[in-house]
Each structure stands twice: as structure tokens, then as C-alpha cells.
Amino acid sequence: MSETLNLKLKVWRQKNARDEGKLVDYTLEGVSTHASFLEMLDVLNEKLIKQGDEPVAFDHDCREGICGSCGVMINGAAHGAQLGTATCQLHMRHFKDGDTIVVEPFRARAFPVVKDLMVNRTAFDRIIAAGGFISVNTGSAPEANNLPVGRETAEAAFDSAACIGCGACVAACKNASAMLFVGAKVSHLAHLPQGQPERFRRVTAMVAQMDSEKFGSCTNTGACEAACPKEIKLTNIAQLNRELLRASLCR
Amino acid sequence: MTNSIPFLRTTIGKKMLVGLSGLGFAFFLLTHMAGNLLLLVGPEAYNEYSYKLTSTKLIYLAEAGLVLMFALHVFLTIQLTAANRAARKTPYERGAGGPKRTSFVAKTLILSGLVLLVFTILHLITFKYGTVYTVTYGTTEMRDLYTLVVEKFREPGYVAWYVFAMLILGAHLSHGVSASLQSLGLTTVRNCTAKKIGWAFAALVTIGFIIQPLYLFFSGGAS
Known about the structure:
Chain A contains 8 helices and 7 strands, in the order ββαβββββααααααα. With 251 residues, chain A is of the alpha+beta class.
């Protein structure tokens, strides 16, 4: 395997939300196979800056796969073809010399493009603000052993809590549905004693917000589960459906 | 004060209705397929069954239920599909390949459904509202549906279209049944059970329906 790659890139360039945008071809030589995908884009940007061109805008923060900031469509797959990997943790060794790589933003009506590969994902923040929280008194930390949680329950809650809110599920879904995200958030708190007081109010408010943000609905294709860098399972969607039904019947 | 939408107006509530009506129709298909296997027994068995089924008053209730479920299923899926298409204005340049590719059948349920909608209408015209032959067993005169079925299933073109439509039905059910179970929240920790149930059900119904025209076509049927 060669240590460096020569790549052809087709990158989505869009000046602002109103601009139409188009794919622009670039060639990039001598990309290290040890670089992450974002580092490859950094190299492209350095080249563009040296040429006096506008660098490609993309979201990123921790670059450790845990913050949920980054994410682009790489050859049609959210975060690229590797399973359970965020764009920042995708390494260039998964590509071959001479490859053409199409890089597009996460697309959904609810995620309008801000610039180039950056999209506005505040729709997720509004869904969380609608009900994805628990109300507790601040002050001294409570005694942890006052609220016993069984191991199985804790693990199930944590599996859902692993969601980093990157939006890959929406991007990969043919319907641009946010069900996996909302399912993960609702399931996480529904498992835990702290989540019980607001359980029904939470799910109704979050679903109402999700629908008003104009995300599509779920057709159970499983594209979200495959795209998720944290491998959130489709069963979270089934739980969301159950929670909403229960909340509607029991209120 | 929290925001809320009446359950049946949420996308989740609508999906549950789609799932319920779909499962209701799937159950009907199972009974329809099983009943029609009497075609393989002979004309008298089939015609007697058909006569018993249609001579009770309950048939009107059952038919009304089927029409209602069918209309609800079609209306809601078209409404949801329109909203889903609107949820992404700019399409992607490229679709996902490799491990992140999703099943073609799952993505095209609305299209297989459309074929089934056309098939169902034609199916009712051909058989339910088709030529009425009569036959008398003992003292009872009844509709000879068997003769009409055999007449149709002797035409190679009709058999080909019928088998094609049943394969489409199989594809629709192979995703639809498990997806309905998921929409209704009936899948837990592992969702492979729902998938297996869906596949087994689709295979059973499809094979059962396909055997009938093929048997009558190749045997010529009893006259």
C-alpha cells in the first residue's frame, strides 16, 4: 500500500444559504494515508489558500468522534463507507490512489446549508429544548446510591445516550427523517428513574417539534442505523413509537 | 405548557395506522390465499366455498372493513410520501454503496404498492365483477367462479402478469410486515425476529398465490 494518495475530489461549494451551489473538481496530490478525512480537507484548504481561493467550509470540533460536530456525505454515504465511524475518525487508508471522492453536505430541508459543507442543525437543538432534558434542582451533587439503576437498564440507557447528535441519520435517510435521533434521546431518558416525571410530556413535545421542523417520517429502511457513527439501533425508533402511544393513551 | 399534536396527526400516529391497516390487509391475504387453495381440490369444493362466503350478510361488513383499510393505507402512504419527498429538496449526487446501502425493496415500497393498487382494481374487475357463469350442485344454483378462474389462468399473458404481481406483493410484504411491527413499536432489543416473521409471511403468501395459476395453467384445470 502506498503511503500517499493522489485524489480527485468533487466538493460541494455554496457561498451561502441563498446560493444555488455546485460540485467543484479539485485534484490533491500526496495525501498521507495516515491523515483523517478532515485532515485531507485541511490539506486541500491550505492549497486553496495558497492559490488565493476561498477554503472549503466544514464543521468540526473535537476530531475524536465524540462531539458530533463533523459530518459530510462521502461518495453518497454519511461519514463515508466505514461503519460506526465519524468523518473525523475516517482515515485516508480506506481510499485508493487515484480515487474520485464526492463530498457533499448533509442534505435535508430541516438542515439548510450555511456554506459549502456546513449545515444548520439547530433543528436538533430545538427538539432537545422541547423536551430532551430532566428538571433537577442544582446545587450539591445528589448521593449516587439514592437512585439504584439495574445494570441492564443502565447499559440500555447508555446505548441510546451514545448518540452524539451529528445528524448522519437524517442525512442518510431517504425521507430525511429524524426518528433515530429523537428515538435515541427519548429512549435514553425513558430508561432511567430521573426521566420518569417528564416521560410523557417529553415524548409528545419532542415529536411535535420534530414534525414541525419538517423532517420526513420513518419507512424503516435502516439507512440511519447503518450511517450512525455511534451505532444507535433501530429499536430506539420502536421505543419512541411505543412511548408516544403510551403518552397519548395515558395522559 | 408543552407543545403537542393529537396522536393521529403526528407522523408516528399516521405510520401506526399505515402499519395496522397493512397488517389487517396482510391477514386478509393469508385467508384469501388459504381459501383459494381449494382451486387445487376441484370445482365443487371451490364453488361451494365461494358460495358460503358470499351468501352470508357478514360479507358486507368484511368488505366495508377491507375497503376502509385499503383506502386509509393508500391515502396515508401517499400523504406521507409527499411529505417525505419534500423533506429533502436537493437530491444527492451519489447514493450510498457498500455497507451503508439500503435495500431496494425497502426504498421502493410506495412503487410496489402502486403496482398492487392497479392489480387489486383489475383483479376485482376480472373476478368479482367478471363474467357470471352458474352451476348447480344438488338443488342449489350458485356462481361458477371456478370456470372463470380456469378460463383466465389458461391465458399465458394473464398468468405472467398475475405471477409478476404476486412477486411484487412478496416484495411489498417482505418489508411491509416487519416495518409495520416496528412502526407499532413491537420490536425490542433485537429486531431480527420481526424481519424473520416478515420474510416467512411474505414467502408463505406469495408461494401460496403463485402455485394456483401455475397449477391451473399446466394442468388445464378440471372442467
